[in-house]
Specification:
Blueprint (H helix, E strand, L loop, with lengths): L1 H5 L1 H16 L2 H4 L3 H8 L6 E2 H4 L3 H5 L4 H9 L4 E3 L5 E4 L13 E5 L7 H8 L5 E5 L13 E6 L2 H9 L3 E5 L8 E9 H34 L3 H15 L1
């Protein structure tokens, strides 16, 4: 722990500052309900530095109130309160953009993919503002194998999608050899279209199955002609 603290000034302060700026960034605030609620709950838009000590990525950096304060003080995007206990973004939240038009979907990721590795890889196509890497709700929290990457502009997203399939090389690590992955990529707009088409086909299939089941049930519930005749004859005999 002392070794980590000693390297803070040179190696970790920049990482912590970028993480704070991410939390207050336009892309994150459009999705992060908790952050938005915290900002809206204060008339000046400040959030106590203490709040960030509960964030997993801040915990992983072993940050303290002092290092958080220092990171915010050196950010051109953030502003400390007069007493140095809270922080806010300097600029107002940008007007909402068409996020889907700026986002790409990619699948067939390596199992070792992380937010950082995805941000680094997709940065070759433009400025990456947000990375969503869904994980299974299991103990190992393994990734589901796909990612959504939001760029600053629709043009960057289109340029990225136009290059598909993308080749991602995972370098060798220990006994694990270097591997190459061919990523299938499309804009999120196209992904939404395909998803709706899949849902429509599913609804059609379910409807066909239900109709067939109703027809089958109706066939079994109707008495046969011979059974109906026998019933009527028996009723007539009883009446005589």
């Amino acid at each position: 722990h002392s070794e980590l603290q000693s390297c803070w000034p040179k190696q970790m302060a920049h990482v912590l500052r970028k993480q704070l700026e991410f939390y207050f960034g336009d892309a994150n605030l459009r999705k992060d309900r908790f952050m938005k609620q915290q900002i809206d709950s204060n008339p000046q838009g400040y959030i106590p530095l203490q709040t960030f000590l509960e964030f997993n990525k801040v915990k992983a950096l072993e940050a303290t109130l002092a290092t958080l304060r220092d990171a915010a003080a050196h950010s051109p995007l953030l502003e400390l309160s007069a007493d140095g206990t809270s922080v806010r973004r300097r600029a107002p939240l940008a007007i909402a953009k068409d996020v889907d038009a700026c986002t790409v979907y990619a699948e067939n990721l390596p199992k070792t993919a992380t937010h950082e590795s995805m941000q680094s890889f997709f940065s070759q196509f433009g400025h990456v503002e947000y990375v969503s890497l869904p994980r299974h709700a299991t103990a190992d929290r393994r990734i589901k194998g796909f990612v959504f990457v939001e760029f600053a502009t629709p043009a960057e997203a289109l340029a990225c999608a136009a290059r598909q399939p993308l080749t991602l090389v995972t370098p060798a690590a220990g006994e694990v050899a270097e591997t190459t992955h061919s990523l299938r990529v499309m804009t999120k707009t196209e992904w939404n279209r395909l998803k709706e088409e899949y849902k429509r086909l599913q609804r059609g299939t379910v409807s066909v199955i239900k109709n067939a089941a109703r027809a089958e049930a109706s066939t079994h519930s109707k008495p046969s002609a011979s059974h109906s005749t026998s019933t009527r004859e028996a009723a007539g005999a009883g009446a005589g």
